[in-house]
Task: inverse folding
């Protein structure tokens, strides 16, 4: 039983780390904590299922869902499917240049994570917020290898549209000019 639990937690850690390519590097060395009302694990099929108010944490990353199914392939890659009302994800990114890391938050009715292909898909009422920028649609795809982002509406749904709110960015303050040495008298 303890081995099964360790495998399930390792799979959960891999799924979380696959969610964000820009995650804080410090998150990688942090332990993964999983809370749920129930857990079942089938070692032969390499599947673990967490159900009931599932909370997965690793460093700054946090995923909340009603149900998380983790599957591991023969090469050790993890595939995760999380469902909820909604599934919620939050993570802090690494700092860029002189800017601090920012929080990225996402939610959808279903989230699919493919560690092997480094893809994250959000289905039904999908939303991603980074700083105050926000995108919404029926489907959001993020390819971490290419940093490609795609948002689409529900096909065939009248009036369904993609929305994006992009805040103006403050220009970075120029570096102060070097001071001239004072002349000695």
Result:
């Amino acid at each position: 039983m303890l081995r099964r639990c360790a495998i399930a937690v390792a799979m959960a850690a891999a799924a979380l780390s696959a969610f964000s390519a820009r995650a804080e590097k410090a998150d990688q060395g942090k332990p993964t904590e999983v809370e749920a009302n129930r857990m079942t694990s089938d070692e032969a099929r390499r599947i673990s299922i967490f159900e009931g108010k599932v909370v997965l944490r690793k460093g700054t990353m946090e995923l909340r869902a009603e149900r998380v199914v983790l599957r591991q392939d023969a090469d050790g890659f993890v595939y995760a499917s999380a469902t909820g009302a909604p599934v919620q994800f939050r993570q802090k990114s690494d700092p860029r240049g002189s800017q601090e890391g920012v929080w990225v938050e996402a939610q959808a009715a279903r989230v699919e994570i493919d560690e092997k292909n480094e893809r994250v898909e959000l289905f039904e009422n999908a939303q991603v917020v980074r700083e105050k920028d926000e995108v919404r649609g029926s489907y959001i795809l993020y390819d971490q290898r290419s940093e490609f982002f795609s948002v689409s509406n529900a096909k065939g749904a009248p009036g369904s549209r993609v929305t994006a709110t992009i805040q103006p960015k403050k220009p970075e303050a120029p570096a102060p000019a070097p001071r001239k040495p004072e002349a000695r008298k």
Q: What stands out?
A: Confidence is low (pLDDT under 50) at residues 5-14. Residues 2-19 form the longest helix (18 residues). The longest strand covers residues 78-92.
